[in-house]
Fold this protein.
Amino acid sequence: MSTIRMRISPAGDVLDVKALIRHPMESGLREDKSTGEKIPADYIQKLVVEVNGEEVMDGNLSEAVSKNPYLNIKVPGKKGDEVKISWSSNTGDTDEATQAA
Amino acid sequence: MQTKRRVFLKGSLAASAAGLAVGAGLLSPRAVLAADWPEAAFDSESMDNGLNELFGSSDVTDSGDITVKAPDIAENGAVVPVTVESSIADSDKVAIFVSKNPTPLVASFDLSGANPFVSTRIRMGETDDVTGVVHAGGKLYKASKEVKVTIGGCGG
């Protein structure tokens, strides 16, 4: 089950891409209330969007992006084009998803 | 001892092989995890430093051609929807700053084809301006929108 959910709406030669990624985006500032220990930082740093294998956006995120990050961008493309979203976190976790418009 | 040594050798071999592959251009930089994440910019504790680290300049001009959309009042600072849009020609980078956050740079987006339009959700510690910075034609432009935060979203 991918952590990435995508909705793509083609409008002429532009694809409106909405993505929701399931991720805790731990800032490293929060404490575990039962143990009083700091919860280690765990957040997405890189977020890359490709259309038909070509990179159209290279995003850098920080711990100031909300839990379960949401992204809406507009990329060049038409119905049937393949949109790929991939992310990697500061802990080395990665995931990716591809969907046809 | 023997097995540890074996593991160590294996590990260093694998590491050097990966290094060689990158050097030889066999692996694209993309394959190297988060190698190009601008750490210094994200660690900067002032917006000017963050801009310098990210763009090599903190010389920013206010622009009416940038729209920053955010709520007037955010009851929960943990989830503040923000949209930055630019109608400046050749806009190729968009960054979001919240100057009073411990590290003001929230996110930056290099656009190599995507329209200068980014919408996301961010965390804010207190009432502050959300600033959208756009890089276009080698220059920096910005616009801000004040958001009143009722409950901060940084701690827990």
User: Anything to note?
Assistant: Residues 2-31 of chain B form one domain. Chain B has three helices and nine strands. Confidence is low (pLDDT under 50) at residues 22-34 of chain B. Chain B touches chain A at residues 30, 33-34, 36-38, 42, 78-81, 83, 98, 101, 103, 105-115, 117-124, 153-156 (CB under 8 Å).
